[in-house]
Every structure is written in structure tokens, then in C-alpha cells.
Design a protein that fits this description.
Layout (H helix, E strand, L loop, with lengths): L17 H11 L5 E3 L12 H10 L3 E6 L6 H7 L4 E7 L1 H6 L6 H17 L4 E9 L4 H16 L14 E5 L2 E7 L25 E2 L4 E3 L12 E2 L5 H5 L2 H12 L5 H4 L21
Parallel strand pairs: 1-2, 2-3, 3-4, 4-6
Antiparallel strand pairs: 5-6, 7-8, 8-9
Helix pairs in contact: 2-3, 5-6
């Protein structure tokens, strides 16, 4: 699939192998509350998806899965219902974007059936139905149709949509939510500089690890432009405490963007209100 929301990935397309996966998960387990199985790509496409989920359960790591749901079959359903999975995000806008002339009833019904089963068997599981296409051309009509299907499929009432400027989610039932957001432009070095000032949660709330083990500071660095090291050959603690990583983190806390990719990122404008506020300094 090729969705308008997701740009082409320049780096080699590959799956993370088991040895590297287990090494990475063991390394990050003491450092994080959850692991997300996505930094571009479709996690359900991985041939070892179910066994990777099972491994995370054995080491006590919780999972956050973002998927388009097209590959939701019996085996993957069982994996997604594993107690290691904390949250699942279904990107519902992806089907319409790729197959505008196909009926999406069967696709949606599979997701509704999974949701109803999850409500019965995993009432603690958070499920988000994502419509991250607010403001896109033609999105209003397709979203209205999707909302009608969701009402019918889950037997719920949706009083009104969320205003993405203030509130992005609408509760449906149990721990199932509709989540709206607008599209944004992924950062690229060919783009013009937006600002040398800004704040980002990269390296404070999350890092990214690409399929080859490259560690990046942010989930929007899809091509490893700001490669901080490699988890296959280096210790994670050393990577995130490297001079380049520390300069990035300290820069964010001071409202300074030290990397070219960050200066060209438009998503970072969502945090502009944080620039200039006093923040806890990084020690060392």
C-alpha cells in the first residue's frame, strides 16, 4: 500500500531479524513503558509478528501497535489479543486512500469483529480508530461514510466529531475511541528551514530504532538522517548519552534546534508554545 499520509522510505526495505529484535527489546525493557511496532511500514506484514509479540510478553514489555488492519486474519488476531498488547491503532483512512473505488464493508467488518471480541476478552485493551486526514481533499465525504459504518458496526451513537485544535478523540464504547487529526508534512532535508527555534519530545519521551538497528531521536526520522548509533553493535544507554544525542536533548530543552532535519520539520510547530518556558536542565 502507498498512503498519501506516509512518504516513500529511502532506506533499504527490510524486516528486523529475530536476533536483533530480541537484543533490542531486552535492552530497552528497563528504559521504557512500552514499545511501538512501527516506524513506517505495516507491523502485521512481518512474517514473525505473532512470535515477536509473544517474546515481548515473556520479557514484560507492553506494546503499542499501529496497523491499517488489512492483514487482520485469525493468527494475527490471536497475537493482537495477547496480554502484552496495550493499545492498537487502526488507520482507517488508509483503505479509502488506496482503494477509492472498492467497497470497504468487509475490511471494516473484520475490524469491528475484532473490536467486539477484544471488548469481551481484553476489556483493558485500548483501541483507536484513526482518521488522520482532516483537511485533506475529499476527506469529509469519505469520513462521513466511515462514521456511518462505525455507528452501524459497533452499534454506537457518535454525537459529534472532535475539534482537532482542542480535542482529538471521541469515546465510542469500553476503551474504544475515534481519533481525529490533520495531516502533516514529514520532514526532509530538501525542505526549506522552518526555524532554528523549537521543542520536541524526541529523546525525552521516545527514540526510534530502524529495522537495521539504527537509533534515531524521533519517530519522524524515517530514513535515519540523525543516526545516533546502532543497537546491533552498541549499547543503547551509550547511544542515547552520546555527545550528539545530548546536544539534541539539551537543545530541545533550551528551545534550540541543533539538527538540520529538526529545523526543517513542520510537525515541531505543534510544540511552539513550549519554546521559551523554563525546563529542567539536562545534567552532565
Amino acid at each position: 500500500m502507498k498512503c498519501p499520509f506516509c512518504p516513500e522510505v529511502v532506506r533499504d526495505k527490510t524486516f528486523m531479524g529475530r536476533e536483533l529484535f530480541e537484543k533490542v527489546v531486552r535492552a530497552v525493557a528497563p528504559l521504557t513503558e512500552e514499545v511501538c511496532f512501527h516506524l513506517m511500514g505495516e507491523p502485521l506484514l512481518h512474517p514473525e509478528f505473532d512470535s515477536y509479540v509473544a517474546f515481548c510478553r515473556t520479557v514484560g514489555v507492553r506494546l503499542n501497535i499501529t496497523t491499517n488492519g488489512l492483514l487482520l486474519d485469525r493468527q494475527r488476531t490471536e497475537a493482537l489479543l495477547n496480554s502484552a498488547v496495550k493499545q492498537i491503532n487502526f488507520s482507517l483512512q488508509s483503505f479509502e486512500a488506496n482503494f477509492p473505488h472498492r467497497d470497504h464493508s468487509e475490511y471494516l467488518q473484520n475490524i469491528f469483529d475484532f473490536t467486539e471480541r477484544a471488548l469481551r476478552e481484553r476489556s483493558d485493551l485500548y483501541i483507536n480508530y484513526r482518521l488522520w486526514n482532516e483537511g485533506a481533499e475529499g476527506a469529509q465525504g469519505s469520513n462521513d461514510l466511515l462514521l456511518q459504518k462505525i455507528k452501524q458496526g459497533l452499534h454506537v451513537e457518535i454525537q459529534k466529531k472532535a475539534d482537532v485544535r482542542w480535542k482529538k478523540s471521541v469515546h465510542l464504547k469500553g476503551r474504544v475511541f475515534l481519533h481525529f487529526d490533520s495531516r502533516f508534512q514529514w520532514p526532509h532535508l530538501d525542505q526549506p528551514v522552518r526555524s532554528a527555534r523549537g521543542f520536541c519530545y524526541g529523546l525525552s519521551s521516545h527514540i526510534g530504532i530502524l529495522a537495521d538497528g539504527t537509533v534515531v531521536p524521533c519517530c519522524l526520522d524515517k530514513d535515519g538522517v540523525i543516526g545516533l548509533g546502532n543497537a546491533d553493535t552498541q549499547n543503547i544507554d551509550e547511544i542515547i548519552d552520546s555527545p550528539r544525542a545530548r546536544a539534541l536533548r539539551q537543545g530541545f530543552q533550551r528551545g534550540n534546534l541543533v539538527e538540520d532535519l529538526c529545523r526543517k520539520c513542520t510537525f515541531i510547530s505543534r510544540f511552539d508554545k513550549k519554546v521559551g518556558r523554563g525546563r529542567t536542565p539536562v545534567l552532565g
